[in-house]
Amino acid sequence: MGRPQRWRSGIDNMTNATTAPSNALPQAKGQSLLSGLRRFAVRYPLGVVGAVMVGVILLVAIAGPMVAGNPLEMRPRSVFAPPSLDFPFGTDKFGRDMFSRVMYGAGIALKVALLSVTFGVVVGTIMGVVSGYFRGVTDLAVQRVVDALMSLPTLLLALALTASLGINTNNAIIAIGIVLVPQVARVARSSTLSARELQYVDASIAVGAGSLRVLAIHILPNIAAPIIVLATASLARAVLIEASLSFLGFGTPPPDPSWGADLSTMGRRFFQEAPWLVLAPGLAITVTVLGFNLLGDALRDVLDPRLRKV
């Protein structure tokens, strides 16, 4: 009579052992994610600071239109008003609220940066992968184009492209994207040359896999890490280029709010009378660029296996 009870208890234990992992799986995933984030925060505190800065700028860009007032509204009675509760960042010579202009400018800066980096990364990756995989005459032709683009100073090339295409935000996005193409192409090419020599790539080619299949399945996943790191760092570069173009009058046209344009039209002429006209957009540019750089450095350390072992 005792044997059935032992068998029953054994079956119950097996059932519990079988069902317990499936119920605990979501908790295990959540705990592993939290532990991973905790390790990242401990090992890369500056990366966390950068992520927080980027998160704040994203929040400002998203919530700006809902929180801030009209950045184009002129208040003749509040010209050059210093920072106060009504105007946290003061006003300019037209009485426009600098707080609203900085918040709206965040959306424009991030839009230009994200779209231009996406354009530059896609085009540069295609050029670099094609150049490194097919080599020969294709590699020679593509690299000469890259060399020609890299021979010109970054800002000068962006100015020439914007002046040729026309002065507006969309053309500034295209110009900045073209400026970012050469560096991405070089990184993609060097990574492709290394991945091209891997044994499983040779095996895939030997069994008859086509070039598109090899590129999509074997090459692109292996070169994704350096491209992601470069794209994150390029966001800071794109913000700086956009601010420089707007400062020189070739970026976002007035009266649309732009950090670089506000520094140029207001900050240079009225810095002594109203220093807040420079401090507000200048601080916004600094926080954005620094945040992307810190986050990019942390991602480089995380995604590079050679640095992870150190």
Radius of gyration: 26 Å
* N- and C-termini, Cα separation: 63 Å
Q: How many domains comprise the coordinates?
A: 2
Number of helices: 11
Helicity, in percent? over 70%
Principal-axis shape equals globular
Fourth-level CATH superfamily of the largest domain: MetI-like
Instruction: Provide the low-confidence segments as ranges.
Output: 14-20
CATH class bucket of the largest domain: Mainly Alpha
What does this molecule look like?
By secondary structure, the chain is an all-alpha fold. The chain is built from eleven helices and no strands. The protein folds into two domains: 43 residues; 258 residues, MetI-like fold (Orthogonal Bundle). The radius of gyration is 26 Å and the shape is globular. It starts with a helix and ends with a helix.
Short structural summary:
The chain is an all-alpha fold and about 300 residues long. It contains eleven helices and no strands.
Please specify the SSE layout and strand pairing.
Elements: H1 2-43, H2 45-67, H3 98-134, H4 136-150, H5 154-165, H6 169-196, H7 199-206, H8 211-248, H9 259-270, H10 276-303, H11 305-308
Overview features:
about 300 residues, mainly alpha, MetI-like fold, 2 domains, globular
